Amino acid sequence: MYISSQKFHKLYLHLIILWQNVINIEESYGVFGVIITSLIIPLLCIPIQAYFSSHFNKNYLPALGKIAYQNFLIINSKPIGDLYHKIEKYKQDTWKKNVWFVEGAPIGALFSMFLFISCFVISQIRGFNNFILLSPYYSYLNYGHNDKDLIMILITLNIFTLVVSMIISFYLIVFYSKGYLEPKLTKELSLKRSSKYFYYSIWFSMGIIIGFNAIVLFFTIYFDDVVIKLITSSLTGLINYFVSLCFICVYLVSIGLSCVFIIMLYNNAKLFSNLFKQKINDYYIDDFPHLRIKTNAVEISGKIDDIQNESLIILNDGSTVKAIRWDQITSMEIEKFALKEKITMGPLPENAQSKKWWRFW
Question: What does the alpha-carbon distance between residue 165 and residue 157 come to, in Å, rounded to a whole number?
Fold first, then answer.
């Protein structure tokens, strides 16, 4: 029994409305409440929605049936077993990516704070207070806490985020040109140390960018009254209008490019993993066994061409490439021509082909 995607979507919307009502009760939060309900909560709900959709969607592939057939292939075909062993070793070798990502965020935030404090210190040195990026820091300390100076300081924080993001992108472009995006393998078909640390650096860079943006978001929320005052008074004078327009443009560009860079980094991390799996697949592909697969409608035979697809197994009979969904398979035979015998796996028990809605593992 599965919960339909429509019902889950309604549940998701009700949860969002509930959170909005909770935030609206605390009227003193002001812009902070708007940011929480409009930005942070929806972003947090995206991975949660994806997780529960994969378990409750009626079109989701039952995991037990797929795993059972894969185990059948692993046990009875050495190349398939070796392939999965190498992939599992790759996962073990790269599990620290989460650690690097989590470490990157606070390091990025601390480095942003270091730049923030350094600007106040350097601006007090004679001559440096005339620099356009440092003059707001000098004025804010020596001529009273002026709101325009505070807004200019927030703008410089966004500029720091942009500069760091550009430096990271330049660093990655250089390494891409050197061919580091393509994983380098040892004789044992495991990642070389250089490729491993390049992969970690991608996740670390994502954390750095998130850390910088977290500091910008924190100061923007903390001084939300100043920001609102500037924006609402932008029509009273040309200077206020220019400063508010500059702040909005820089803020949107900084956030937008940061999101673009993070998405690009994430996609490159996925591409790196896919290239590794493809290399392993190409190494063993000549030794993959021939299969005869039966579904409720047809019988299909051919040599395994790709077994790593999430929902399909790909067969090649020499002239045609065929794709079969794992959940459509009723029986599977491995043809061992050298031994002139077949190893057959019949239909799975009913309880192994369907996954209960309340099972999360």
Answer: 12
pTM of the predicted protein model: 0.70
Closest by CA to 154, choosing from 146, 143, 165, is 146
Closest to 191 in 3D by CA, of 264, 91, 281, 99? 91
Identity (one letter) of the amino acid at 7? K
**Helices 147-177, 238-284: crossing angle, 10 deg rounding:** 20
Task: Spell out the long-range contacts of 226-233 with Cβ–Cβ below 8 A and sequence spacing 24 or more.
Answer: 226/147, 226/150, 226/151, 227/31, 227/151, 227/154, 228/30, 228/31, 229/147, 230/147, 230/148, 230/151
pLDDT in tens, the chain (361 residues): 344 455 555 555 555 554 555 445 444 444 444 444 455 555 555 555 555 554 444 444 445 667 888 888 888 888 888 888 998 888 888 888 888 888 888 998 898 889 888 888 888 887 777 777 788 888 877 777 777 778 888 888 888 888 898 888 888 888 888 888 888 888 888 888 888 888 999 999 999 999 998 888 888 888 877 777 766 665 555 566 676 777 778 888 888 888 888 888 999 899 999 999 889 888 888 888 888 888 888 888 888 888 887 788 888 887 888 888 888 888 888 876 544 445 555 554 444 444 444 343 3
